[in-house]
Structure formats: structure tokens, C-alpha cells
Design brief:
This protein has helices spanning 2-27, 32-43, 47-59, 65-82, 85-102, 106-123, 126-142, 146-163, 166-182, 186-203, 206-222, 226-243, 246-262, 266-282, 286-302, 306-323, 326-342, 346-363, 366-382, 386-403, 406-422, 426-440, 446-470, 475-530, 533-548, 552-572, 580-598, 625-636, 667-673, 675-700, 712-715; strands spanning 578-579, 603-608, 617-619, 644-652, 655-662, 705-710, 720-726, 729-730. By secondary structure, the chain is mainly alpha-helical. Strand 4 (644-652) and strand 5 form a beta hairpin. It has 31 helices and 8 strands. Among the domains are: 462-518; 531-730, Heat Shock Protein 90 (2-Layer Sandwich). Helix 1 (2-27) packs antiparallel against helix 2, helix 23 runs antiparallel to helix 24 and helix 24 (475-530) packs across helix 30.
Length: 733
């Protein structure tokens, strides 16, 4: 705390000396050379001093930007006088980051970044060029241009790879994951955040690991995988709490609060947001503070507490304006306009949404513009400006459809359907309401079904009415027939809705019962495979043989391992997931028994990714054991050389990849020795595994993989490799 203050006072003395020298130079231009010599001598303007000035400036760029700015300026002046190019470049870089972090002078930040880049390139400084590229990426992200930001992050990544700068690589991968997440390109987002967490693990930096897990949670959240998101959010919170990182704890509070908001537990959401707010204020994290005000506003808006919501939205707007952060300002304008619309203050709502649209068009924030056009249309409807309202609703509908924003398409199509129906354009009304139903189909709200039934009824009624008018039938008969038809359609619609509700309930119940039965069936089959009668019989015979040969110690050891294995199999067969440590223990025990039983000296080993915590990571149990058994009995036992079994676990695309590999004789040669037994045993293991993989894919809604590879087909060596890609869970311990 006091060290930066002491440094600032020390360098303030240097600034005073330089200022005094510059004043003397103005008084006597003829003695410039002598003055410069005295300046160098008086301030010790060597490279070490300049480097310390720049280092302190970088340190203070967040906590004390004014001091950071002045220290960078004096470092620049001294570097100019001594011709120290690295000092000049780093001073430019510090000036750029100081402007950038204040969010108020993005243009100035860009100018200083480019000046720094020019000097770094002339000296071949890859680290400096990487820092410039990283800063420029943030400049463009603040203006909403995520594609330009991606270009600079890729350049930054390339430069840091050249010098293998781990911290720089972490930041680059992390930023790329964020960019892809915002563009809803989740595959690349997963790949990059896993790379970032891997690099953080290599650095053994708890703070970075926590941050990476938090960002992984954000990706899960955007995919509506809330269970996975909550798991990693709490993992990040525990790491930050262990480290005492108040900024990290604040971020975790905000994300957990958001989960409660999605669950509509508004009191809990407010509790976590209000835990986060004082931390953001105390640490002067303006970015997080503004986000928290907006989040609190959303909760109060959901509770119909409009005045309170407006208060928090206004506070968020002021902070975004102080940061000169256009995307944040645009969002705040939209939120305030929405609140004024609910309060029936249409003029105020119109003014704020117009400001949001104007800024959104300037920064090309197209996803926000779609919702803003729809909101503007709603406000204009309230102001009775029908032509303008329909124009903006159609504009918002079109843009939302092009960008794939379901919520905006649904809202626009519902309003357009209603307004076209009121004006007698029933075909258009039917078109937009059908579109609304298509988007809302997964929700299956009763109100949607009733509206579609009503629209079908109205369309058919109008068609019938035109036919009757063409035939010049009496007006009274037309109305009477129409009323009867209306009652009939209404009754049919009600009955149809009731039928859908009952049928849907029965189908869901039947599906749940079927799933439960499938789970029990799989458990029984799995237990039968694990507790192979042949294996049990032979194991007991082996124990008997030890006893008969008076090998009491060996018999006792074998019996203990056998009992532990049987108990573990019975316990895990009833569980959907077990920890990786438990699974490893069962497999190790099983292979030790097999080694003792066959009296063969095969070896085995486990290769586990160091980023996987075996105590908290849980996987579906006993997937590997049938294939380990096949590897021992049909691959390794027939061979003359020493056998080896390798069991690998690693992270891959948000899943765990499990591999069982042996160097045995291979499936083809094994089949020639005892084809009937080998085929039957491998077929049973494979078919059961495929059933379990299919069940996991359905229950977890994640893509899985199962493959058996003959190694002789790919690397001219004997043996077999079985590969699984399976989901996993993180358990708190």
C-alpha cells in the first residue's frame, strides 16, 4: 500500500528537477547542451531509472491514473534525451493503457498504442508488440467492433507464441473465448477457454485458474447449461476466497446472483448483487459497478418496482457515460426507455430509445438495434403513431430474423399479428402469429395456442362471410351462421387445448418412467458385466489354491482386494457419477487381482491431465473395466512379451476423453485363437457400452463418442485402443 506512494514521491522529485531544468533552458537558450548534461547527472537518467519509472507507471495505471500519466511522461522525456528507444516505447504504452483504463479517451489510447508499436517494431520487441495488439483489441471491443478486436487478439497470440510468454498467451486465449462467446460461436469459445485454463495451470496461478473457470461458466450460461455454470462459478468462488481476491469474489457474487435471477428467485438474486456492489465501489471497479446497477435494475423491473428500477438504471448510465463506453450507454438507454414505457411515460421512453438507436447505429451494435426498433415501435403505438410504429416493428423483425435473435422476433411478430388483425389484414396477421408460435413452440404456453385457434377461426369466418356476400344471402343468416361457427370453433379450441395438456402430461410421465426403467436396466446389465461369474469363480479358486498351498499371507491379501473390489462394484453400480479418484482406485484394484490371478507380470499406468482434479471431477462409472478385462484376457495373456495397459483421462471440448490402450496381440489375431468366446465377450461389452453412451447423450444433452481402434491399422504396432468422449460433473468437497 505504502510502496507506490513512496515511489510517486521519489519520482515527483525527478519531475521537479526536470521542470526546473526546462525553465532554466527557456531563460538561457545558448546553454542548452550544458543544461542537458546537468539534467542527466542530477536525475541519474540512466536506463535503470527510466525502466523503474515505466514499471511504476504501469503499476499505478488502475489505482492512480494521474500519477501513472505523469510518471510515463517524465519517462518519455528522459528517454528522448538519452536516446533510449525501449524507454520511449514503454512510456507510449503506459500512456495508452492509462487512457484506455479511464475509458474516456479511446482515440488518445489508439494514438499512443500506434506510436509505441512503431518503436517496438523498429527494435524487434515481440513482447511490446504483443502488448500493443492486446490493447488495440480492447480499444475496438469498447467501440463494439468485435471482429476488429478478434484480428488484434490473433496478432497478439501469434507474437506471444513466438516468445512463449505464458501470461500473454493466457490473456489472448481468454479474450478470444470472450469474443466467440459474444458471437455465440460456442465451439471455438470452449477450445480457447480450455487453452487459457491449461496455460493458467502451467503457471500454477490460482487467480488465473479461477478467472478461467468463471469464464467457462459464462459460456455454459449462454448455452443455458445452468447446472454446469453453477458448478464452475462456485469452483471459481472457492479459489478466489482461498486467495483472498476481493475483485474475483465480487465477480462470482454477480454470476451467482444472475443464476438466481434466471430461476426467478428475486430476493436471493438481490442478496448476491448487494454483496457484490460495495466490493465494486471500494475497489473502484467502475465496469463491474455499472453492471451491478443494471442487474439490480432488472430484478426490480421484474418485481414491477419501476421507480426503484429506474433509479439503478440511471446510476448505471452515469457510470457508462463517465467511462465513455458506447455499448454500455446504449444498453442503459434501452433499459430506461423500457421502464418509462411500463410507467406510461411515453415521451420520456421515446427520447431514451431514440438516443439508444442513434448510438447503436453509430457503433454498429446490430443485436441491440433489433430490440430497440421493436421497443420504439411499441412506444409509437402507445403515442398513436401507427405508420411509424409499423415501420419500426417490421424493421426490428427483419433485423432480428437476420441475426437470429428469437426473443426480438417473437415480440415483434406478436405485436405485428395483433395490429394487422385490428386493421383487417388477417392473412398478414396469420403469417406473423404463426411465426410467433413457431418460436414459442418449446414453451407451449396455453395463451399462444388459444391465440392461434382464434386467428384460424377469424380467417375462416372472413372467408365464409365473403362467399355468402358474393351469393347475396341475407345479412341476418350470415351473422347467425358466423356466431354458431364461432362457438363451435371456440369449443373445439378449448377441447383441443385440454387434450394437448393431458396428452403432454401423460407423454412426459411415460418418458420419465421409461428413462427410470432404462436406468435400472442399465444398472443391472452393468452389474452383471462387472461381476462376471467366470471371474468370480476363478478368483475364489485362486484363493482356495493359496490356502491349500499354505500361502496364508497371499490368500489374505488376495481375499482383501477381492472383497474391496466386490463392494466397490456394488456401490458404484447404483450411482450415475463417481469421482475419478474412486474410478481409478477400482480399476487399479481390479488389475492387481488379475495380475495375481494369472500370475503374469503385465504393467499398467494411468495418464491423467494435470488440469483435472481427480477428487472433485466425477464421471460415469465402470465404462473402462470391460475393455480392461478384454485387453488382459484376449490381448496380453496370449503374448510372450511383457504386456502394458495405459488408461488416459484428458479434457476435450467440454468433455472428458477416456482411452484404454494395450500393446497386446490385437483383435484380429485374438479372434483366430478362440473366435466364439472373444466375439461373444467383446460384443456384449460393446453393445452395453453403446447403450450407456446413448443414454448419457440423451440425459446430459451433450454429444458423446465411442470408438475401438486397431493400432496396427494406424501405426504398424499390435494392440487396441478404446476411446470415449463422455460428460463429467464437478462436485464440491
Amino acid at each position: 500500500m505504502f510502496l507506490p506512494v513512496i515511489r510517486v514521491l521519489y519520482f515527483a522529485a525527478i519531475i521537479i528537477v526536470v521542470s526546473g531544468c526546462n525553465k532554466n533552458a527557456e531563460d538561457d537558450d545558448r546553454s542548452d547542451d550544458k543544461k542537458n548534461v546537468k539534467l542527466k547527472q542530477s536525475v541519474g537518467a540512466d536506463t535503470a531509472t527510466i525502466n523503474q519509472l515505466n514499471a511504476t507507471s504501469y503499476e499505478l495505471r488502475r489505482s492512480n491514473p494521474d500519477s501513472a500519466f505523469y510518471l510515463a511522461r517524465i519517462a518519455y522525456c528522459l528517454s528522448e534525451q538519452t536516446g533510449y528507444q525501449k524507454g520511449i516505447a514503454n512510456a507510449y504504452l503506459n500512456l495508452a493503457y492509462t487512457h484506455l483504463i479511464n475509458y474516456s479517451k479511446n482515440d488518445s489510447a489508439s494514438i499512443f498504442f500506434r506510436k509505441a508499436d512503431s518503436v517496438f517494431k523498429s527494435t524487434g520487441d515481440y513482447y511490446g508488440m504483443g502488448m500493443v495488439a492486446f490493447g488495440m483489441a480492447y480499444v475496438y471491443s469498447f467501440t463494439g467492433d468485435m471482429y476488429k478486436s478478434e484480428e488484434y487478439i490473433n496478432e497478439c497470440l501469434m507474437l506471444f507464441k513466438k516468445i512463449n510468454h505464458k501470461r500473454g498467451l493466457y490473456n489472448a486465449y481468454n479474450s478470444l473465448a470472450y469474443i466467440f462467446q459474444k458471437r455465440k460461436e460456442f465451439g471455438p469459445a470452449y477450445d480457447n477457454i480450455e487453452q487459457a485454463i491449461h496455460v493458467a495451470g502451467e503457471l500454477k496461478d490460482t487467480t488465473l485458474i479461477a478467472e478461467g473457470n468463471n469464464n467457462l461458466g459464462n459460456i455454459y450460461k449462454d448455452q443455458y447449461l445452468f447446472n454446469h455454470a453453477i458448478d464452475v462459478y462456485y469452483k471459481a468462488l472457492n479459489l478466489w476466497e482461498a486467495k483472498g481476491d476481493v475483485n474475483g469474489i465480487s465477480i462470482a457474487y454477480g454470476n451467482i446472483g444472475l443464476m438466481y435471477y434466471y430461476l426467478k428467485d428475486y430476493p436471493k438474486a438481490l442478496e448476491y448483487y448487494k454483496k457484490k456492489l460495495p466490493v465494486s465501489i471500494e475497489t473502484k471497479n467502475t465496469w463491474e459497478e455499472s453492471r451491478t446497477y443494471n442487474d439490480i435494475g432488472f430484478v426490480h423491473l421484474s418485481l414491477n418496482q419501476y421507480d426503484t428500477a429506474l433509479f439503478y438504471y440511471q446510476k448505471g448510465l452515469m457510470l457508462n457515460q463517465s467511462m465513455n463506453y458506447p455499448p454500455g450507454i446504449t444498453e442503459s438507454y434501452h433499459n430506461i426507455a423500457t421502464t418509462f414505457l411500463y410507467m406510461n411515460e411515453f415521451d420520456s421512453a421515446y427520447r431514451y430509445v431514440s438516443n439508444s438507436i442513434r448510438m447503436g447505429e453509430h457503433i454498429k451494435a446490430f443485436s441491440g438495434l433489433a430490440g430497440n426498433y421493436v421497443l420504439l415501435g411499441k412506444i409509437q403505438l402507445a403515442l398513436k403513431d401507427m405508420p411509424s410504429a409499423m415501420h419500426n416493428l417490421l424493421k426490428g423483425y427483419k433485423l432480428a430474423s437476420e441475426l437470429g435473435i428469437p426473443s426480438a422476433v417473437a415480440e415483434a411478430s406478436e405485436i405485428l399479428s395483433r395490429e394487422y388483425s385490428h386493421t383487417g389484414h388477417h392473412e398478414l396477421a396469420f403469417k406473423y402469429l404463426s411465426r410467433f408460435k413457431q418460436i414459442q413452440d418449446s414453451i407451449k404456453e396455453d395463451e399462444n395456442i388459444r391465440n392461434i385457434a382464434r386467428l384460424d377461426m377469424q380467417y375462416e369466418f372472413d372467408k365464409k362471410q365473403r362467399e355468402i356476400e358474393a351469393m347475396q344471402e341475407q345479412e341476418k343468416l350470415v351473422h347467425t351462421a358466423a356466431l354458431k361457427q364461432q362457438r363451435m370453433y371456440l369449443l373445439m379450441a378449448v377441447l383441443f387445448i385440454l387434450f394437448l395438456i393431458i396428452a403432454g402430461t401423460l407423454i412426459i410421465r411415460q418418458k420419465n418412467l421409461s428413462l427410470n426403467f432404462k436406468t435400472l436396466d442399465l444398472e443391472q446389465k452393468l452389474l452383471r458385466v462387472q461381476m462376471n461369474p467366470h471371474f468370480i469363480f476363478n478368483s475364489l479358486c485362486a484363493i482356495q489354491d493359496y490356502i491349500l498351498n499354505n500361502k496364508k499371507e497371499e490368500a489374505n491379501t488376495f481375499l482383501t482386494k477381492f472383497a474391496v473390489l466386490m463392494r466397490s462394484i456394488l456401490e458404484t453400480s447404483k450411482q450415475d457419477y463417481v469421482t475419478l479418484e474412486k474410478e481409478k482406485e477400482i480399476l487399479k484394484n481390479y488389475m492387481d487381482i488379475q495380475k495375481a490371478r494369472f500370475e503374469t507380470d503385465f504393467a499398467y499406468r494411468f495418464d491423467i491431465d494435470k488440469n483435472i482434479d481427480t477428487e472433485t471431477t466425477a464421471i460415469p462409472p465402470m465404462l473402462a473395466q470391460p475393455f480392461v478385462e478384454n485387453a488382459i484376457e484376449h490381448g496380453i495373456l496370449p503374448m510372450e512379451d511383457k504386456g502394458l495397459i495405459i488408461i488416459r483421462y484428458c479434457l476435450k471440448n467440454g468433455l472428458i476423453r477416456l482411452e484404454v490402450e494395450d500393446n497386446g496381440i490385437g483383435r484380429k489375431k485374438s479372434a483366430t485363437i478362440n473366435p466364439q468366446i472373444v466375439y461373444k465377450k467383446q460384443s456384449l461389452a460393446t453393445s452395453l457400452t453403446l447403450e450407456r453412451i446413448k443414454y448419457l447423450q440423451q440425459s446430459e444433452n451433450r454429444k458423446t463418442r465411442f470408438e475401438i481402434i486397431d493400432l496396427e491399422d494406424i501405426c504398424n504396432t499390435s494392440g487396441t485402443r478404446v476411446v470415449f468422449d463422455i460428460p463429467y460433473r464437478t462436485k464440491n468437497i
